[in-house]
Design a protein that fits this description.
The protein is α+β, with helices and mostly antiparallel strands. It is 24% helix and 17% strand.
Length: 176
């Protein structure tokens, strides 16, 4: 038997190089909580364990889906999980995770009269909503990328933490 080596001077066929990408893709993010114990390697829940558990059962338990709506697809659940990772990394705790009435998953936030959510629809659309419950809600489309999901988390956090004003929410400018 003869040993050979591959010629490394030729580019490998079928390999995608970093400059080849036309669209940004979701980048996996491993979150190591800041409150991990060095002695036990255990973490405090910090309000996320039950959200992840709920997300896992939404596609399986038909009783959690509003009447007439489609159960969330695996794709919608996967994108919602990416946002939950981003929220956990930035310590932005959602109020609840629910099946969307439009078919998909919604991650919801409530702070007094302020409401926000991100809906991951089965169609592949991702929509963000913020509302002060008095004015017309602000709705925006979110691209399925790590950067856009991080931007949506930041935007919702700033909206929920901002002091209440009487200014019409639709006239505010938001930076992405």
């Amino acid at each position: 038997m003869t040993d050979t080596t591959l010629p490394y001077l030729w580019p490998a066929s079928g390999v995608s190089y970093s400059g080849d990408r036309k669209r940004e893709v979701i980048q996996p993010r491993h979150v190591v909580p800041r409150d991990t114990s060095a002695a036990t390697n255990q973490t405090a829940d910090a309000g996320f364990d039950h959200h992840y558990a709920k997300l896992r059962v939404l596609g399986k338990d038909r009783s959690l889906v509003p009447g007439g709506a489609e159960a969330p697809t695996a794709n919608a659940q996967a994108f919602a999980s990416v946002l939950l990772n981003e929220l956990q990394a930035n310590r932005i705790v959602p109020t609840r995770v629910v099946a969307s009435a439009e078919g998909g998953v919604a991650i919801c936030f409530v702070n007094g009269d302020k409401y926000a959510d991100v809906e991951f629809l089965n169609s592949g659309e991702i929509l963000g909503v913020v509302s002060n419950r008095r004015d017309k809600p602000i709705v925006w489309a979110i691209d399925p990328s790590s950067r856009e999901l991080a931007g949506a988390a930041h935007r919702i956090s700033k909206f929920l933490d901002a002091p209440a004003t009487s200014e019409d929410a639709s006239k505010r400018t938001w930076r992405r």
